[in-house]
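Complex record, two chains
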Amino acid sequence: MKKTKINIGIVGLGRIGKMHAKNICQSLPLFNLKSIADPAPDIGFTRNLEGVIIGDNIENIITDKTITAVIVCSPTPTHYEIIKKCVMQKKHVFCEKPISFSEDEIKELITIKNKQNIFIQVGLNRRFDQDFLVAKEKMDSRALGDIHTIHITNHDASIPSFKFLKSSGGMLFDLCIHDFDMLNFLTGEKIKEIYVNGGVFIDKRLRDIDDVDNAIITLELENGVLCLIDSSRQTHYGYDQRIELFGSKGMILVENKKDNLYSLSDSNQTKSSKIKHSFIERYRESYLNELKHFYNSIVSNTTPSVGPENILSAIQVAEAGRQSLKTKRPQGVKYE
Amino acid sequence: MSSVDLAIVGFGRIGRIHAENILSMQGANLKMIVDPILDIDEGLKRGGIQQSKNIADLFSLQKIDGVIICSPSNYHVEQIKELSKATKNIFCEKPLGLSIKEIMEVKSLVDSKNLNLHVGFNRRFDPDFSSLKLSIVSGDIGDLHMIKIISRDPSPPPISYIEKSGGMFLDMTIHDFDMVKYLSGVEISEIYAKGDCFIDPEIKKANDIDTAIINMTLKNGILATINNSRKAVYGYDQRIEVLGSKGTMIVGNKLLHGVRKGTKDGFTSANPKNFFIDRYKESYQIEIADFIRSTSGETVDHANVDDGLHALKIGLAANKSLLKNKPIQL
């Protein structure tokens, strides 16, 4: 059977947009990258993209009837309008998380895409990481018996610029949103309650905007499983991404990936490399896998496994987390 | 260094460990063991160690330089008071007491009689953790931001023990509360404890929990967490990580042995050591050696009455937090 080739457009050519573009051109031949929209595209990057239309606004993409799918990687505040336009033109959308900071906007997008019979997949890429998938598979086969606790470690290697931090929605919405979703993905359970204990250690200006750069978060799932997330914006030693699942029959650890596997022992010590520096290196495979899944969903006409409903839940947890940080009390998560 | 004469009160599991360690050390003589339910031990007798069921017999000794109290926790304070009449040097197992009032009484006794009181928070003497502390103090990872402790027992104690233990936070987590203070040098100022009973419903019937996730802030703003379970089927899981402005330090588990095996099914390595007696063997030796040195006049670092008080206060606050499901300020 000949595989259908899907013409695709990318909106937003920042760090992650470039990564998706590169992945499609180099590794995902089932997509044909037809068009890119960015108000100020990086010429050094786009000159290597042969035959791709580069425009400064999304009209090129919206009006192109041959484009059936769009990847949205523009800044979060622009997502809602862009997705709406794409869906109205019957184009399937892959959008980077968190789609929107507004629950109402996400709910509206869910209604519209259902009405239009169009898919929106959300870039919660960690669901497609091979290591986490194996951990989930083992857990689902009850290798750990009953699950008692889950511990996620999620630290960035270096703190982003204050300009980014200000527009990021805050640490809970930007960084920990992945962890809230991961808990839901691994267990199939919703988060019932959240308590956020945070501190500012790295960039003191965060205090002025009610944000933090370090946090220890206690959560309880609806089935009573206790969870812990520890997170910070800067480690220096790399992108610290670990998960520990603990149950009545044992424990699963997913450890960090290193830059390289050498170690050097001398008369003083043994030294090995840092762990991978950023999401692009650590989760390389997952970014390819999520787009393969997007492609398969479209050609088989089945709803992608991760959509706006999932990000909505994660945002509702983040919102309860924000309240907890403010009130210094555990908060129940409101899902309505 | 002149030789010091010591006695042990309470000859259960931990009393025997201390006795064995003292007997293997230079500079100390074990003179007497007091235990109300002790059967005459021929081995001790041959070693010239007197045995008694009555604490008053300690006062008949010609010379006594220090006493080690390893009796059940509810006798600790009463015995410290009594024994302070015989010696200034007292080593007492944790927990020092079971109420704040009791420990405050000990504190005033320590002040008025200038007692050299050591509390048996042995993990402070574990070579891994004392190296970790040294590196923190030396600024190897800059300013401390976060402390993460994983502390899991291999199996829960008998229900009869749990009923008298004061609960998991006072019995087990108390070591972890002290470790947070030891590593940071700072007291805990706020605690949110969440826990449940997942392992054995009998533990719930005894009004206790077996699993907990604890979330804390220290007086200087450092964040800390403790992850507890009464039953890790793979062994005694004791890990610590600290994060600072310049990096991280991690203490992993000590394994039963160092063999790693690889076959067509993958690689296997040994599980962590079974329990505290194996995992913290060296710490028990070092804490008693230090007590002996301090008994003969040297200055050593050790957990004191304020540390005992801190750990108990935090344990009680953890109980309160669990009950009310809200963070408690100290």
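Note: Residues 4-120 of chain B form a domain with the Rossmann fold fold (CATH 3.40.50.720).
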